[in-house]
Amino acid sequence: MRLIIIYFSLFTSLFALDITAKYSVEYGIFGHVGTTQTRTFVDSDNRYKVDLHVQTVGLANFMSGGREEWFLSIGAVNEKGIFVPEVFEKIVKQRVSSINGFDSKWVDEKVTQRYTFAHDTKIVMLEETKEHDGTVIHKASKRADYYAPYDILSLFLNFPKLLPSLDLKEPVVLYAIGANETDGRVDVMPLPNASAIKEQFAWADGHMLKVILNQEIFASERGELIINLGDDGLCKQGVLEDVILFGDIRGNRVL
Length: 255
Fold this sequence. Notes:
The chain is mainly beta. It contains five helices and 14 strands. The protein has helices at 2-10, 58-63, 152-157, 159-162, 194-201; strands at residues 18-27, 31-42, 47-56, 68-77, 83-100, 103-118, 123-132, 135-143, 172-175, 185-190, 207-212, 224-229, 235-243, 247-253.
């Protein structure tokens, strides 16, 4: 569930110095299951900061142990208007069961993954920290399994620059830290049946795309999303189709 909430909120584009967007996510018979809010800020020196907060609600919150996630991308906007990340950070907080020998108890767990980019050498370093009730129980650093020029936040901010058009005619392959765990691959494809899909979901006019995340999300083996972008590049609606038993997962922008 959390991945869908996250990805619906990522398809944003910068056309001002300060943008905030909020999305509501519904899942079949469960109804409203989460919200996410993202903010993009660029200062006068073309330094940028993007932060994203994801929170489940209701039954989804209970089943996930009150899970919350924060994503942060910091870097610079180059002369071509491309967001070039220097640091990407992901923080996950939730209530988990901790087992020590024959004893177990519930603890507040916080896991932080911090990626640092060295674009000149095409190396990304990963530092991971795990805490239980505020005490660090694990900390390690290593070279990330692959290099990508963007993180998942900056990638989608760069959509209008990286894609030849929001009305795609041919598939495009992109890569980002935080996407597919093997190589970060993200496939963006045109929709030949866009008119039928708009009618099916009662969507207004927009730029329809299919985004394949190349990882399993619920019953969608490859994580195939259909999104509807406005002229400003912001995602208006999105759907992960035909999730077994419970129907479609749908996201709508509410702010």
